[in-house]
Amino acid sequence: MKSKRLNIKNSKGLMLNAYMELPANQKPNYYAVFAHCFTCSSNLNAVKYISRALTQDGFAVVRFDFTGLGRSEGEFVDSHFSANVQDLIDVH
User: Given this model, what pLDDT does residue 22 score?
Assistant: First the structure.
């Protein structure tokens, strides 16, 4: 498994912290965006373990922090369901 750190600009111009997990010895056959719970971060152990397990089956997985969480820019107080959905669209 290989991991790359990414910064993805959302529609509000804020940088979202993200990681791309890639299969170790092959090109990805599939791609997925991992949306963790809306108050967690992409560094939660369960999120990392699931993402990395998917790479063993040929998936490339992007896991990211929603606006205001983890290392992403913005304030958590501005986070709400619609904003999180927009972050998902922006990461896609």
Answer: 96
